[in-house]
Amino acid sequence: MDDDLFIERALESATETRFLLTAAGARHDSAAVFEKQFGTAPAIVITDESTFAAAGRDVVDSFHRNGHPVADPFVFGPDVYAEDRCVQQLQAALTGVEGIPVAVGSGTINDLTKLVAHRLNRPYLAVATAASMDGFTAYGASITDKGSKQTFDCPAPQAVLADLEVIAAAPPGLNASGYADLIAKIAAGADWMIADAAGIEPIRPDVWATVQSRLHHWVSSPAGIRNSDPTALRSLVAGLMMSGFAMQAARSSRPASGAEHQFSHLWDMQHHTHNGVAPSHGFKVGIGTLASIGLYDELIRRDLTSRSVDDLMQRWPTAEQLESKIRDLFEPGELAEKAVEETRAKYASRSQLREQMNRLHAAWPELKQRLQQQLIPFSRLRDMLAEAGAAFEPEQIGISRTRLRLSYEQAFYIRRRFTVLDLAMLSGEGEAAMDELFSHTGCWAAGAGRS
Ligand SMILES: [Zn+2]
């Protein structure tokens, strides 16, 4: 089965998106695609200044050529961010204007339009101008509200156009960022495997296959991403869109997000910036993927069944002990409260805990082998990120080794999802494994990376 047929199958099980076109010059077909989805309803194009120049103007022209009613485009200025202020601005502009939104841009424009379209009870069409993340076809929009990043419930676009010509000419780093967000599914998949083995979150085979069955192929030409090779970009778009479809089908980000995204979310919640700007989602997730895979490599090297379940049960901290650990690790404030809430939500009863540990111990010899097949070794993954033009050392996104070591500790607490961080805790090997990663022989040894 080729990618096209595979995508068609996934569209059949996606709950919101009905149509995807990936082609060079797809922007010129916007009006035709729009008419198939929405009939004669008028359209309104949403862009920013740079995506208007890259594709928005041609999208508007396609409506004019077809004699299809289209309102004046709404063009954001240069200070457009996925934040509440811009949501209000767009919502005010669209209220009272008849028209189905056509979002022309990458993550920010898409997320803003997704949320506002939903609030105004309208479907929308997305025209992707960069393959920068997997959110185009995902359920939900990631928006900063009152200073903290939140995911708002709202449906994915009804149809998506990905113009490979425009994507190939996207500003430097954007497609590399999407590449890192895609390769992250290697680690996210491993996390789902262990959550499944522990009896916590069973794998849904159809959703698993949507993301995982071609993943190694989709990420196989990192240099092609850097060079804007059309075949490599087509694979990247396919992988990112399919990840979104999987999230639509699962109504959860589980198929596409694990511990590696927790590192990124942690840094978002800490309002991390580097040289005055927040690093891209994909660059943060790429470093998070290395962090996750480094930990997997170390845990796989160890015998996770060497300590008896009884011994582990005795050492397991109480909920109160965990809470006081959180108070030590985080500054007082919103993030600390979130960590307390999430940690409480995943705190297992003694009997649940015993059952999880028993299952993991029983599964480990075979699970370890399946994990090795799933994962890409740390040094290879780092080279792939580098070849694609993504960040491959934490310092490139302004995260020191000391901060990364602390992030390993903190990331465990900020989300209830079961990941490699939980496996490390549950095995009793977590502290020693993390210390090893930062020792002079570990993957995060100072100066260990490629130049
Ligand atoms: Zn992501």
Automatic annotation (TrEMBL):
Residues in the signal sequence: none
Top EC class of this enzyme: oxidoreductase
GO biological process: phospholipid biosynthetic process
EC number of the protein: 1.1.1.261
GO-annotated molecular function: glycerol-1-phosphate dehydrogenase [NAD(P)+] activity; metal ion binding
CDD domains from the UniProt entry: G1PDH (cd08175)
Gene3D superfamilies hit by this protein: 3.40.50.1970, Dehydroquinate synthase-like - alpha domain (1.20.1090.10)
Assigned keywords, A-Z: Cytoplasm, Lipid biosynthesis, Lipid metabolism, Metal-binding, NAD, NADP, Oxidoreductase, Phospholipid biosynthesis, Phospholipid metabolism
Pfam families linked: Fe-ADH_2
Cross-referenced PANTHER family: GLYCEROL DEHYDROGENASE, GLYCEROL DEHYDROGENASE 1
UniProt-recorded name of the protein: Glycerol-1-phosphate dehydrogenase [NAD(P)+]
Gene this protein is translated from: egsA
